Amino acid sequence: MSDADRDWNAFATPRPDGGVHMDLAVEGITCAACMSTIERGIRTVPGVTEARVNLTTRRLALDWNPTRTDAGALVRRLERLGYRAHPFDPGRRAAEEEGEAKELLRCMAVAGFGAMNIMLLSVSVWAGNVSDIDAPTRDLFHWLSALIAIPVIAYSGRPFFRSAARALRALRTNMDVPISIGVVVTLGLSLFETARSAEHAFYDSVVMLLFFLLTGRFLDHNMRRRTRSVAENVAALRVEAASRILPDGTVRDVPLSRIDPGDLVLVKPGERVSVDGIVEDGTSDIDQSLVTGETTLVPVGPGTRVYAGTLNVGGLLRVRVTAATEGTLLDEVNTLLESAAQAKSRYMRLADRAASAYAPVVHASALLTFLGWWLGVGMGIADSLVIAVSVLIITCPCALALAIPAVQVVTSGILFRAGILLHSGDAIERLAAVDTVVFDKTGTLTLPEPRLLDRDAVDPDRLEHAGRLARASRHPLGRALAEITRAVAPPIEVREEPGRGIEAVVDGRVERLGSPDHCGADPAAVAALLARFPGASLVAHRRGDEPPVVFAFEQGLRRDARETVDRLVALGLSVEILSGDRPAAVAEAAAALGVATFSAGVGPTEKIARLETLKAAGHRVLMVGDGLNDAPALAAAHVSLSPVTAVHLSQAAADAVFLGDRLAPVVAAITVARRARVAMIQNLWLSVIYNVVAVPVAVAGLVTPLVAALAMSGSSVLVTLNALRLRLGGDRFGETDRGAATVAAEPATAGS
Amino acid sequence: MDVLIFLIPIALGLGLLGLFAFMWSLRSGQFDDLEGARWRILDDSDLPDRDGAAPPRDRPADPT
Predict the structure, then answer these.
(1) What's this model's pTM, rounded to 2 decimal places?
(2) Burial of A611 per CB tally in 10 Å (0-12, 13-18, 19+)
């Protein structure tokens, strides 16, 4: 597809100083040398004010003066440098998250500064308390600490205070509520103690607590941002754009966000339909496998409805864009998706469950401590209050608040390296609980690209020739053929007959590639081939006067599909197939994989119904699917995975996306998640044990700031180390898996 | 102990200096691309050639 006719300027955003800014996802940035080649190459274009490659996100940020150059010229310049650029529809959510990460980092820096400087003063006080510090110096040190602590807490505590206030307004409680209470009460107590010139103040503990918590939260945020930026690049590489036909007949590629209902859109052969609409003119065959799971092609003509995500296999189509209207497949999917997502939000995360059990216990024990010392022992109100608050300080949920995020950060890092991008951290604990795996067939168990059947029977020389001709074709089967033969150097002059095939003159002989009909293949041979491979798609090749050769293609199972199913069964999971495809095709796949339970021809509603049945029987279901028809099921399942080739809606509905041609990530996700859950439970127990030891000490009134600081940092370090322990085995797992994936990718693309 | 009157403000001042340096570098985007930054220091292309012109292969292939 030529990019020359794309309206690149539609992707650019104006800036207040009159310049224009655009972000591009750039294909092929592999090393530092690419970075300087691109930057230097682009900066030589007059009018460019800034070009900066981000090697971490593989993106290029461009600023230019719109009166001197335009986006198209810059993209063409990039292409001459050898890099393909893909426009990037910048979302508002991404910018918000970016701001959130920056805020966390700033809060963390301020808390770090405060913790270090207060500790400097506190250590002096602790040393002085056992030797010869005089009271005025100690008070000075305490007041100085307060001077640092108050603004630091006011600034760095905001993320916690905000979240706690939100939870309380909604009459819920989360981990931030006890944290906020602990922080405020500790600061108040310290000020009170300083005012009455006491020996102990807890400024160091409270600021250090904030610093630890912010570090954990920042790492967690960073991990999610990294996976999201990879997912966004993948989406941009698949070009979320449509060719819009303007009223004057010219065609411009514009981002999907600029397409309105009523617009006319051009869909070329071999392209995905990017919008929902009704065919205005043109006839073609549509591959709906990504939408319905059905592998046979559907003929379309004027008046037929087409859906975003389907593949145009035949001729040129002009499509009138429609909004999602009632009764269409998309509308049904959207309604189901909404209700499924609502049902899912009822899941209560492990951390929140721990918090809701924890807060009342701690606050009650602090209250009992106060009453006990005041009324029971008969101590003064002030002193009883100090001891009660020290219970709150020592139990301030530092270890508990880090227990689960620390494991999530480490685990999502391991999964990231194994090619699994998580959308949400709590997907890990849900993955660990899974006991049933439900697969979609088309595009999930099978590869999205077709596979050549009966390859040994084909003359290699003919295959090579056909492959070279196929290089010039846009038809999906032609592309698959070209990939299989790894042919290069297509003939220069190729004539294309839309919907039938292509023709070229090679070495003085006319060669044709296309439908058996186009090449004059023997109908009896075609019928025989179809009898041998029911459901196969055929491509014929004709060279001069030699008899035509017919190649049969089929949606092949992923290379490691059988192995994956076996490993899942070995892990004690039951496996099922739910497909929208024909019963014969599904039964064949199920037999090849050794899966006993399967249903064919099911729509989105029936998929959900099946998941509900399983749920009612007490099963926790992992749904793996890629099609539009899977999206509601992905949202309804306990947890869901989606291959990176899936339609946008399904990827958004799934909890995680996995990269590559293999299914191994499904097994990896479950095994890694199970180990992560063990570590989470261990961490929760560690914090419980810590509290069981520390609380009696605090209730007895024996807690000094030194004890508090040691206990708090000690327990935090302990849970973090326990989380990091996962990496010892985890990295090895991720690396070998990826190594295997790259090795396997070679023969896989060579065809089998 | 009078020396504390100088030492504590100095210690705090140095700490604040570090904090402001960090805030400034964060604001100016120096943490946006940690992967690229470690290669950029090896790249000499921002230095002018001896005659002050950009290296010839960087000139545009055609004047657009």
Answers:
(1) 0.71
(2) buried
pLDDT in tens, A266-289: 887 777 787 788 888 888 888 777
Distances in Å between the alpha carbon of A554 and those of A352, A481, A517, A536, A584? 48, 12, 19, 5, 14
Q: A345-386: per-residue pLDDT in tens? A: 556 677 777 777 777 888 888 889 999 988 888 888 888 888
Nearest to A44 among B31, B36, B60 (CB): B60
C-alpha distances out from residue A445 to A431, A558, A627, A643, Å: 19, 6, 12, 10
Instruction: Show the domains of chain A with their CATH numbers.
Output: 1-88 (3.30.70.100), 93-237 (1.20.120), 239-323 (2.70.150.10), 423-447+558-673 (3.40.50.1000), 449-557 (3.40.1110.10)
Burial of A656 (0-12, 13-18, 19+ CB in 10 A): buried
Catalytic residue, chosen from A23, A287, A440, A737, is A440
Q: Which two tokens stand for residue A549?
A: 């050769």
Chain centre distance of CA A711: 37
The helix (H) or strand (E) run that includes residue A450 is strand A446-452
Closest-CA distance, B50 to chain A, in angstroms, reads 18
Count, in order, helices (H) and strands (E) of chain B: 2, 0
Please write down the HEC assignment for all residues of A613-639.
HHHHCCCCEEEECCCHHHHHHHHHCCE
Do residues A198 and A129 lie in contact, with contact meaning Cβ atoms separated by under 8 Å?
A: no
- A731 counts as catalytic: no
DSSP string of A1-28, one letter each residue: --STTB-GGGG-EE-TTS-EEEEEEEET
CA atoms within 13 A on the CB side of A581: 29
Which residue in chain B is spatially nearest to A72 when comparing CA positions? B64
Strands A251-255 and A241-245: antiparallel
Reported confidence tier of residue B14, pLDDT bands at 50, 70, 90: very high
Dist CA A668 CA A672 (whole Å): 6
User: Which among A467, A536, A477, A463 has a CA at the least distance from the CA of A269?
Assistant: A477
CB-based contact A513:A470 (threshold 8 Å): yes
Among A23, A34, A56, A100, most B C-beta atoms within 10 A, so best to mutate, is A56
- Which candidate in B2, B5, B20, B22 is best for mutational testing of the A interface (most A CBs within 10 A)? B22
Task: Give chain B's length.
Answer: 64
Indicate the residue of A40, A69, A106 with minimum beta-carbon distance to B45.
Answer: A40
Residue A543 has which token pair? 């060279």
